[in-house]
Specification:
- The complex is a heterodimer of chains A (104) and B (136).
- By secondary structure, chain A is mostly helical.
- Chain A is 69% helix and 0% strand.
- Chain A has helices at 14-20, 31-62, 68-100.
- The two termini of chain A are 34 Å apart.
- In chain A, 12% of the residues are buried.
- With 136 residues, chain B is α+β, with helices and mostly antiparallel strands.
- Chain B is built from two helices and four strands; from the N terminus they run H-E-E-E-E-H.
- The longest helix of chain B has 33 residues, at 98-130.
- Chain B is elongated and about 80 Å long.
- The chains are: A mainly alpha (104), B alpha+beta (136).
- The interface between A and B is medium-sized, with 14 and 16 residues.
Chain lengths: 104, 136
C-alpha cells in the first residue's frame, strides 16, 4: 500500500494581501488583488448603468421619455448590478478579514 | 451587461415591440372613422412588422423591422347626404375593423405584461442568487 505524499502548500507573498486593503487599482500577483481590481472594474460598469438611469430620469422629467419601461427597467438593472457588486465586495472583505483573524 | 442579464435585454425588446404595436393600434382606432372623398386614399391601417433578432444561444429578443400599411382603397359607401360625397353620392371610409383592433389590443397588452413578468421573474431569480450563502 502506498500513501500519496502531501503536496506543499503554496501561498502568495503576504505583501500582496496587504496591498489588497487599498482596494483595486494596485496591480499585483495576489489572488485577493484580482478580486478587488475586478470589483473596481465592475463599479465602473455600475456607474455607467446609473448614468443611463440619470439620463432616462431627466428624459422623463422633461417629457422626452418614449417608453416608461425603459426607465423602470434601467433602474431595476442598475439596482441589481449594484447589489451584485456590493455583495461580491462584502464576501471578499469577509474572507479577507477571516484570514487576518487567523491565529498563526 | 446584456450578457449577464440576457433575460432583461430580451424582455426589453419584447416590451418595446408590444408598446409599438399598442401605439399602432391606438392610431388605427383613432382614425377608424375618417371619411375621405372618393378621389383621396382612405386612412391605411398600420401593421408593425417584427422578427427574431439574431443572437447568441440565449437569443437577442425581437426586432421591429418596419411598418406595413393596409388597403388605401378602404370601403366605398353610398352616403349622398354626406358633405364629402361625390356626384354619385359615394364616400370612402378606412378598412379598419374595430372588433379586430380590440382583439389585437388585448393581445398586445397581454404580451407587454408577459414580458414585464419575464423581467420580474428574472430579477427575483438573480436577487435570490445574491442571497446564496448569507443564511438570510
Amino acid at each position: 500500500m502506498s500513501i500519496a505524499p502531501i503536496p506543499p502548500i503554496s501561498l502568495p507573498p503576504t505583501g500582496s494581501t496587504a496591498a489588497a486593503g487599498s482596494a483595486g487599482a494596485a496591480a499585483g500577483g495576489g489572488g485577493a488583488n484580482d478580486v478587488f481590481s475586478a470589483i473596481g472594474d465592475a463599479l465602473e460598469t455600475v456607474d455607467a448603468a446609473h448614468n443611463r438611469v440619470d439620463d432616462l430620469a431627466a428624459q422623463a422629467a422633461t417629457g422626452d421619455l418614449t417608453a416608461v419601461h425603459e426607465l423602470t427597467m434601467a433602474t431595476a438593472e442598475a439596482q441589481l448590478m449594484t447589489s451584485l457588486t456590493v455583495e461580491i465586495r462584502n464576501r471578499a472583505v469577509e474572507s479577507f478579514n477571516e484570514i487576518m483573524r487567523m491565529q498563526v | 451587461m446584456s450578457t449577464m442579464f440576457a433575460a432583461f435585454a430580451n424582455a426589453r425588446t419584447g416590451m418595446g415591440a408590444y408598446k409599438l404595436w399598442l401605439d399602432a393600434i391606438s392610431d388605427n382606432i383613432a382614425n377608424m372613422d375618417n371619411v375621405t372623398t372618393t378621389d383621396q386614399p382612405a386612412f391605411q391601417e398600420r401593421f408593425v412588422v417584427v422578427e427574431s433578432a439574431e443572437g447568441p444561444s440565449e437569443g437577442a429578443g425581437v426586432r421591429v423591422t418596419g411598418t406595413l400599411f393596409g388597403d388605401p382603397n378602404g370601403v366605398v359607401a353610398y352616403e349622398p347626404n354626406h358633405p364629402l360625397a361625390d356626384e354619385e353620392g359615394m364616400i370612402r371610409r378606412p378598412a379598419v375593423d374595430l372588433t379586430e383592433q380590440m382583439v389585437f389590443m388585448q393581445v398586445a397588452q397581454r404580451g407587454y405584461q408577459a414580458n414585464i413578468r419575464t423581467f420580474e421573474r428574472a430579477r427575483e431569480a438573480y436577487e435570490a442568487a445574491l442571497q446564496i450563502g448569507t443564511g438570510r
